[in-house]
Fold these 2 entries.
Entry 1:
Amino acid sequence: MSRWTLPPDRIPSAWFNVVPHLPTPPQPPLHPGTREPVVPEDLAPLFPTALIEQEVSAEPWIDVPGEVLDILRLWRPTPLVRATRLEKALGTPARIYFKDESLSPSGSHKTNTAVAQAFYNAREGTTRLTTETGAGQWGTALSFAAAQFDLDLKVYMVRASYGQKPYRRIAIETWGGEVVPSPVDEPDHPGSLGSAISDAVRDCVGRSDTHYALGSVLNHVLLHQTMIGLEAKEQLALAGERLPDVVIAPCGGGSNLGGIAFPFVPDSGVRLLAVEPLSCPTLTQGRYDYDFGDTAGLTPLMPMYTLGHDFVPPSIHAGGLRYHGDSPLVSSLVKDERMEAVAYPQGKVFEAAIQFARTEGKIPAPECGHAIAATVDEALAAKETGEEKVILFNYCGHGFLDLAAYDDYTNGRLDEMG
Ligand SMILES: *Cc1c(COP(=O)(O)O)cnc(C)c1O
């Protein structure tokens, strides 16, 4: 057998909080004006109380509300698949498993937190959400989730993607969200995730019926994603497999990585590997410091690896990995050497993504291609040494709305910068 599913009633009923397992206790975010530690009241204009509590929680487990589980069951538990055809093509003794998060309604892991965030906002009486989106994955996930709870949604989409990648904009609108290009006040600027966050936060703080939702980076977002790793752990046991030697995921803001990797943090023999683009090398070349989450400096200062909040990454195809900063939880694990990080250029990513498509059949999102490139290298290293390594990676999204990127690669138009 090479595919393990769990029945719908085996979906995890609590999220895993990594905070009690961190080698160093987390440092607090700082208020952008006073530079004093942020207090919950500072965040109240942006987020519902339940999410603020999760943001600062040190409880080891946090219950998932039944209403959230009911929606997640539309596609969860997601299957764990053994990539035997890829193993064979590589001639590796390694056993390669992936967790298929591409099966969610919006096609990526982001729907896991979108549903939880929409639920808590609706429960506390919010009727409208604002957010930003880069390539559109987060916007689509939140638009689907907002529709489940009758919330209005306004999405500030990075202008370059708004023009070049219409399909996710159309998906957002299909689920009922409104989309505008960002930055709103500079119509000639291609935009960045940092400036789109500024637009969405400004809109939110100006209205009492509105909250803001972020698709990555924050502790509560990574918490919601731990469903991925919890299910994977159970499915590996179901497959009669031991704990993986290495868990691999791409890292933009850190949410799908945290989601699959955090439940393995207490397992000391398991290596955790973040994969980022060489053109936006936050963990591998950034500095560990307090920095803003957005370009305009409206968000709290967070302790994280950062390339600087005014860094505008080159326009690579893995749009979801173009962010100047990283999750404080992921950053802290990398700083304490509990997690490793590597960076790959675009060409190598597409080469691996295409090998995966031709062997396993699935066409991955370019973001996901980063994890596949690192998986291939780990598997080839195992071939050198003859080690029966167990590799688990996160198949965080499909690439059906990214086919133009494959066209660019195949026809030699890939930006050398990446
Ligand atoms: C958004 C996205 C990412 C990057 O975000 P993380 O928060 O780092 O997970 C990676 N892969 C896919 C498919 C995405 O949609």
Entry 2:
Amino acid sequence: MEKSLILALVLVLGTAVAVAPCRGYYSGAEPYVPAPKKVTHLHFFLQDIMSGENPSAVVVARPNVTTASNDTFGSVVATDDLLTIGPNVTSGVIGNAQGLWVSTGREVSCLTVYMDFGFTVGEFNGSSISIFSRNPVSQTERELAVVGGRGKFRMAQGYAQLKTYYVNFTTGDAIVEYKVTVIH
Ligand SMILES: *[C@@H]1O[C@H](CO)[C@@H](O)[C@H](O)[C@H]1NC(C)=O
Ligand SMILES: *[C@@H]1O[C@H](CO)[C@@H](O)[C@H](O)[C@H]1NC(C)=O
Ligand SMILES: *[C@@H]1O[C@H](CO)[C@@H](O)[C@H](O)[C@H]1NC(C)=O
Ligand SMILES: *[C@@H]1O[C@H](CO)[C@@H](O)[C@H](O)[C@H]1NC(C)=O
Ligand SMILES: *[C@@H]1O[C@H](CO)[C@@H](O)[C@H](O)[C@H]1NC(C)=O
């Protein structure tokens, strides 16, 4: 009896020792049960302002190469852009888009955006959607990929249809209309 107890102890301890390295960072796989999906449509304007005393988008790095044209290829811009209900900033702020956009088009102006669109009012206050996408800004209308989200947008996927409302290529200021379809 005592022998079998010791054997059992050894087995238990042995198992514990063998399993121990996994504990703490891996708690086992469970089947993923997705919640029923919802479709949410969002409509807002992004204010990407590079000019003035209080810009919402600032160049944080640019390549040190001399090119024939004054293109911005390679520039990295950090943003905290306001999201507003209408095109005018006075229409009401509903959130902000924080992240980076990089000028990645060599031949034709194009950006790649890595941005988190966070909402600060209403049902989606505290939630955000993640956009990681090419943004061919030379086209007035374009589509971006929504690749994820936080809070009420957890596990989101979707797409954003963009339309440039205003752009000034001298200052770099732009106001862009976003119509986003989010499945979450
Ligand atoms: C930019 O490149 C030029 C030529 O290679 C060099 O002289 C200059 O120091 C560089 N400037 C910076 C800020 O790295
Ligand atoms: C580049 O920009 C400078 C300063 O804004 C301007 O004087 C020059 O004409 C521009 N060059 C080209 C090729 O556009
Ligand atoms: C935004 O609205 C303000 C006040 O309503 C107005 O003075 C301003 O001209 C508007 N700006 C634009 C770009 O429409
Ligand atoms: C949004 O949520 C924050 C944090 O929970 C809260 O402080 C704020 O009052 C909320 N804003 C609105 C407009 O509901
Ligand atoms: C762009 O901004 C500059 C500087 O504020 C201004 O002089 C110019 O008229 C603007 N161009 C357009 C098309 O709005």
